[in-house]
Amino acid sequence: MQTIVLIGFMGAGKTTIGKLLADKTGVHFTDLDQYIEKQAGKTIKDIFKDSGEAEFRRLESAALKDLLSRGGIISTGGGVVENKKNVEEMLMHAFVIYLHADFETLYERIKQDTARPLASLDKELLQKRYTNRLPLYNQAHARIDTADQSEEQSVELVLSELNNA
Ligand SMILES: Nc1ncnc2c1ncn2[C@@H]1O[C@H](COP(=O)(O)OP(=O)(O)OP(=O)(O)O)[C@@H](O)[C@H]1O
Ligand SMILES: O=C(O)C1=C[C@@H](O)[C@@H](O)[C@H](O)C1
Ligand SMILES: [Mg+2]
């Protein structure tokens, strides 16, 4: 199976759907955020706190390269598209699927989770990031809307995109 990369904003379901998709297909799954934490030996929250967002982005780009060379199903972090080279590499080496949802739906999903350093930003600032990233996510090969879907329905939509690809 071709390498599959899931992109989208925080709370879009990249990790959740990636895992379910892997269970269903038997394809190896890796989550980019979890891989970075394992490599760094600390949480993303602590990487942001100790070294700042720029250092996190550097680790993220290096980790993405590793995972693309291994293949399988890869769920990314919400900000991976902020680096143009990351986008180019994902599009070149994988079938990239954008998991979309409107901002309010995503905000409801993530607002109480303290593990995401950027989710604790002021709501307006977070919405600005969301709006700025939309055209970046829309560069994906395919897009599905997860807002009014159950997790299982989202997985089925991803599978049908893969069958149509
Ligand atoms: N249709 C759906 N598809 C995916 N997730 C959903 C759906 N409906 C509700 N959820 C919930 O939304 C949350 C999505 O969180 P998840 O950690 O998978 O997002 P993520 O895209 O990996 O975020 P991050 O960029 O921070 O890693 C989970 O709690 C999941 O149960
Ligand atoms: O949207 C983002 O910039 C982020 C999303 C998360 O997946 C993590 O990669 C980190 O918290 C940053
Ligand atoms: Mg995730």
TrEMBL record:
Residue sites binding substrate per the record: 33, 57, 78, 133
Alphabetized UniProt keyword annotations: Amino-acid biosynthesis, Aromatic amino acid biosynthesis, ATP-binding, Cytoplasm, Kinase, Magnesium, Metal-binding, Nucleotide-binding, Transferase
First-level EC class: transferase
InterPro entries noted in UniProt: P-loop_NTPase, Shikimate/glucono_kinase, Shikimate_kinase/TSH1, Shikimate_kinase_CS
EC number: 2.7.1.71
PANTHER family assigned: SHIKIMATE KINASE (PTHR21087), SHIKIMATE KINASE 1, CHLOROPLASTIC (PTHR21087:SF16)
Assembly and interaction partners: Monomer.
Signal peptide from the UniProt entry: none
Protein's name according to its UniProt entry: Shikimate kinase
GN (gene name): aroK
Binding site for ATP: 11-16, 116, 149
GO molecular-function terms, A-Z: ATP binding; magnesium ion binding; shikimate kinase activity
Cofactor(s) needed for function: Mg(2+)
SUPFAM superfamilies linked: P-loop containing nucleoside triphosphate hydrolases
Pathway assigned in UniProt: Metabolic intermediate biosynthesis; chorismate biosynthesis; chorismate from D-erythrose 4-phosphate and phosphoenolpyruvate: step 5/7
Positions of Mg(2+) binding: 15
Enzymatic reactions: shikimate + ATP = 3-phosphoshikimate + ADP + H(+)
Function comment: Catalyzes the specific phosphorylation of the 3-hydroxyl group of shikimic acid using ATP as a cosubstrate.
Recorded GO CC terms: cytosol
GO biological process: amino acid biosynthetic process; aromatic amino acid family biosynthetic process; chorismate biosynthetic process
